[in-house]
Amino acid sequence: MNLTTILLTKESGYALIQFNRPEVLNAINMKLMEELVSALEELDKDGDTRCIILTGNEKAFAAGADIKEMAEASAMEMLQRDQFARWDRIRKIKKPIIAAVSGFALGGGCELAMTCDIILASESAKFGQPEITIGVIPGAGGTQRLTRAVGKYKAMEMVLTGAMITAEEAKQWGLVVKVVPNEYLVEEAKNLAKVIASKPPVAVRLAKEAVLKSFDTTIEGGLEFERKNFYMLFASEDQKEGMKAFVEKRKPEWKGK
Q1: Structure pTM?
Q2: How far is CA 100 from the centre of its chain?
Q3: 11 is in which domain, residue-wise?
Q4: Domain count, the chain
Q5: Could you give phi then psi for residue 55, rounded to 5 degrees?
């Protein structure tokens, strides 16, 4: 792939994708989304990659959508452009995605972080949905994912005022799992990715599916889905190896089968 808006690095067991539009604080345009989604889909098919990290730079994870691309667009142009089709493809990525956020994660940047499965933040991180200040609302899932993460009242405050929250506030409200010093952010994300990559790949995939299912079904439907995935894993070689290794008090050797 000839990448210009992202940088891709593959390590043992995981991959790191870094947004590469520093001149505009990694503003998200159509080209960046196409390169990002294409890279994610390729990594999802790559047997050597078991976890993916998304990050920006110290100033910005992504400071929002590239407004120049849409400022003069009509409603029909936006509809025909299908602005968010690529975002829907991210939801279908089977491997865990970690967002390592430093600096601004605003508008589309915040929404992009929330499409990931785990969010880590540096002390400088700031999250927000400021779309209201330019006459629109979040359109890539902000009203839905933010509400599920922080609750109705905090989401209402952020969406209706455009206010930002700090990394510590994001952790307090449940949006972020951990806050670390700026210089340790990517290393912390890599360490987490290594831990996830060391687990049985099929079980990791089905565990991610089951957690995500809780957001779009009832508790009864979610429990049924969870149990089916649980039973399904007893058809995997990794389940036999994992339990045998536990009984024999040794480290398991995962095959991803």
Answers
A1: 0.93
A2: 9
A3: 6-197
A4: 2
A5: -150, 170
CA-based max dimension of the chain:
66
- Residue 237 is among the residues annotated as catalytic for this protein: no
Give the span between the Cα atoms of 72 and 69, in whole angstroms.
Answer: 8
Block means of pLDDT (10 residues each) for the chain, 257 residues, are: 91 97 94 96 96 97 84 82 86 97 97 97 97 93 95 97 97 97 97 97 95 92 94 94 94 92
Domain assignment present for residue 15? The answer is yes
Active-site annotation holds for 11: no
Instruction: Answer yes or no: are the C-beta atoms of 115 and 141 closer than 8 Å.
Output: yes
CATH number at residue 231: 1.10.12.10
Q: Which of 27, 100, 111, 140 is catalytic?
A: 111
Confidence at residue 1, expressed as pLDDT on a 0 to 100 scale: 65
The single residue of 56, 103, 108, 141 carrying the catalytic annotation is 108
- In Å, what is the CA distance from 142 to each residue of 18, 136, 197? 22, 12, 29
Our answer to whether residue 65 is catalytic in this structure is yes
Whether 189 sits among the annotated catalytic residues: the reply is: no
Residue 254, domain member (yes or no):
no
Question: Of 160, 176, 197, which closes a domain?
Answer: 197
